[in-house]
Amino acid sequence: MLKRTIAGFGLWVCLAIAAHAGGPQAQLDNGVLHVTVELPNGADGFYHGTRFDWSGVISGLTYAGHSFYGPWFTRVDPAVRDFIFDGNDIVAGKQSSASGPVEEFVHTANDMSGQGYAEAKAGGTFVKIGVGILRKPDEQRYSQYRDYEIVNLAPWKVRVRKTSVEFTQKVVDPGSGYGYLYTKTIRLVSGQPRMVIEHSLKNLGRLPIATDVYDHNFLVLDHQATGPDFTVSLPFPIQTARSSRATIGQIDGNRVSYKQVFAGRDTFDVTMNGFGTAKDNDIRMENARVGAGVHITSDHPFVHGELWSIRTVIGMEPYIELAAKPGETIHWIYHYEYYTLPKN
Questions:
Q1: For 327-338, how does the pLDDT look when each residue is reduced to its tens digit (9 = 90+)?
Q2: What is the pLDDT of residue 232?
Q3: How far is it, in rounded angstroms, from Cα 323 to Cα 330?
Q4: What is the pLDDT of residue 241?
Q5: How far apart are CA 329 and CA 238, in angstroms?
Q6: Taking residues 94-122, what's their average pLDDT?
Q7: In principle, which of 12, 46, 66, 268 could form an S-S bond with 309, CB 3.0–4.6 Å?
Q8: SS (H, E, C) the chain
Q9: How far is the C-alpha of 111 from the C-alpha of 105, rounded, in Å?
């Protein structure tokens, strides 16, 4: 069902829209950036797991002849927990098969559950922001890779314009006591290689919301293999709480770099400390060989940082902390600037 707005500039799109082959999309263009945004759809949308926020999955962004996002996996298998290497294939599970600057709301970095999971009894309900009301099947520890039953597939309203798309979802769960009105807007800045992701979250429940949210930032830059041409830079000396495979990746002051081109099952992970203020939530990810990069900033400080790399993708994950009392509305924003590097 499609309903024109009064101003006539956009469309409100319900989940009942007729989807094109492969799922519904919005195409945004400001003359500099072209962005493909996957729209939420429970039947055949690009993503329909219970881990990531369904709104704002970006499957393509191009600037100055460079491509920044796209699937980092070759196929999806619901039987896979997270992802696996299968010969030349990378197979993603249902919960991890997202793309672009996609977000996940978690209790904390050490507890990836949603609102009310710990308090719910087996068979009870809890809320995953950006997904909806889920059922807790048993008393096992929450896993972000488990497929939880969606009790209420709360509809999304999606307003599409030439240079922006706005998502709105309302969820109220009397069983757990949590509820929210969530709005996310992806907006291209006129005539500039800049994208802004704006959020508001109003607490509609009887209990306070306390959550971390991180953006996975799945970077697939010109489909280049992860290797020495890539660097990830932050404005502070990185203190490493944990890292893996130091033979293939390294930390040098405020930069993460790679010692070899990744192949096969190579992975490199870093848990980061050393940050403090909102000014530290300032990330540059670039590739010297193709001469392009992305600069990511936010108005909220880091509370935790993770970096994850395999041969097809680099994900820099800054966590921020959010809290809203019943009736309170909170806001946060990310800025993305895409750029090319000077030629030598």
A1: 999 999 999 999
A2: 98
A3: 8
A4: 67
A5: 33
A6: 95
A7: 268
A8: CEEECCCCCCEEECCCCCCCCCCCEEEEECCCEEEEEECCCCCCCCCCCCCCCCCCEEEEEEECCEECCCCCCCEECCCCCCEEEECCEEEECCCCCCCECCEEEECECCECCCECCCCCCCCCEEEECCCEEEECCCCCCCCCCCCCCEEECCCEEEEECCCEEEEEEEEEECCCCEEEEEEEEEEECCCCCEEEEEEEEEECCCCCEEEEEEECCEECCCCCCCCCCEEEECCCCCEEEEECCCCCEEEECCEEEECCCCCCCCEEEEEEECCCCHHHCEEEEEECCCCEEEEEEECCCCCEEEEEEECCEEEEEEEEEEEECCCCEEEEEEEEEEEECCCC
A9: 11
What's the first-to-final CA gap in the chain, in angstroms?
Answer: 53
Q: Which one, of 146, 151, 143, 201, lies nearest residue 173 by Cα? A: 151
